[in-house]
Specification:
With 198 residues, the chain is mostly beta strands. The protein has a single domain, classed as Porin. The protein contains 1 helix and 10 strands. The chain has an 8-stranded antiparallel barrel with strand order 1-2-3-4-7-8-9-10. The chain has a two-stranded antiparallel sheet with strand order 5-6. Strand 9 and strand 10 form a beta hairpin. The protein is elongated. The N and C termini lie far apart (47 Å).
């Protein structure tokens, strides 16, 4: 069965890169960007239409660059690796592009002026919802050849400020991925990361 054009690896990666850098180019706001790294638990069910197999373990690692946008939005692009059997035995990897929305907080601190005194107040908790697309190369028992999968997903989470430029981020996401020859997968991730503003 021929792979649909929009699912071919090079075209998928080109789409992710074009959307990410294009969004940064049109953003005129001068907000501080963030770099985030973390780990987590993942569960991926891969099927080929006849059989399926599940990979689940606390072996997810990721790094991502995030850039704030107007209207309490934030775009992120990064890389994820799945290592259920430990470092050096990865079962999956790929690129991520996501968009987060913070409905109750702004990107920058609030400023309070009292006479000659000026204070900045940061939000301690910043809940958010997210959506995105991801690309994965996976190895599973139900699939003899590691395919490239591509698809959309949703997430929910929160950030916890530790210092002005340092925060923790917890998120749960679900992605539905599709690939060639009726191969598909559903993936649930539970992630915890450390984010540094610069």
């Amino acid at each position: 069965m021929r792979t649909p054009t929009f699912l071919r690896p090079r075209k998928a990666l080109a789409l992710i890169a074009a959307v990410f850098w294009g969004t940064l180019a049109v953003s005129a706001e001068s907000f501080a960007s963030k770099v985030e790294a973390g780990f987590g638990y993942f569960m991926m069910n891969v099927n080929n239409g006849a059989t399926s197999s599940t990979i689940a373990a606390p072996g997810l690692g990721y790094v991502i660059y995030r850039h704030p946008l107007p209207h309490q939005l934030e775009i992120g692009g990064g890389f994820t690796i799945l290592m259920p059997d430990g470092f050096g035995n990865e079962k999956g990897f790929g690129f991520d592009l996501n968009l987060s929305y913070y409905p109750f907080s702004m990107h920058e601190p609030s400023e309070i002026h009292e006479g000659n005194v000026q204070m900045q107040v940061w939000d301690t908790w910043r809940p958010f919802v997210s959506t995105g697309i991801q690309q994965r190369n996976v190895q599973a028992k139900s699939v003899p050849i590691a395919p490239t999968l591509f698809g959309p997903g949703l997430g929910i989470g929160t950030e916890r400020s530790i210092q002005n430029d340092l925060s923790l981020r917890a998120e749960v996401t679900y992605y539905r991925l599709i690939g060639p020859a009726a191969i598909g997968a559903g993936q649930v991730d539970m992630k915890l990361g450390v984010s540094l503003r610069f």
